[in-house]
Amino acid sequence: MTSTSKNIATVWTSHLKSKEDKEDFENTLRSRLNGDSITDRLVAIIKNRLDQIERQESSITNYDSSAWPYRQADMNGRRAELKVLLSLLTIKETK
């Protein structure tokens, strides 16, 4: 996922054509996501789910199953999508 110089994923503004519209949207996005209690809670939930996947993955009982490769692929996919969501909700300010 590519990002702008302001660390906002370009997927947020890919539907906009003009530079001005993109900047306006980025400013609106930044003001709504930073410090918002709902966004903060959602980020915490996503991080918790990522931790759960890590714990499940390291469980030795997972290797006892003949379906282990499918479980592993599922966990990898879940982890990847959660990381995408996390990156969309986390805007880093640059100075």
Write a concise keyword list for the protein shown above:
mainly alpha, 95 residues, single chain
Describe the structure.
This protein has helices spanning 19-33, 37-57, 68-89. The protein has 95 residues and is mostly helical. The protein has one domain. The chain is elongated, with a radius of gyration of 17 Å.
Number of spatially distinct domains: 1
Shape category: elongated
Number of helices: 3
Calculate the terminal CA-CA distance, rounded to whole Å.
Answer: 22 Å
**Secondary structure tally: strands:** 0
**Which runs of at least 5 residues are low in confidence (pLDDT < 50)?**
none
Structural class: mainly alpha
- Bin the strand percentage: under 5%
Can you write the helix and strand succession as a string?
HHH
Q: Please outline the major beta sheet.
A: none
Assembly state: single chain
Helix content: 55-70%
Query: How many whole angstroms does the radius of gyration measure?
Result: 17 Å
Whole-number mean pLDDT: 86
Write the layout of secondary structure elements.
Layout: H1 19-33, H2 37-57, H3 68-89
Helix pairs in contact: 2-3
Quick summary of this structure?
This protein has three helices and no strands.
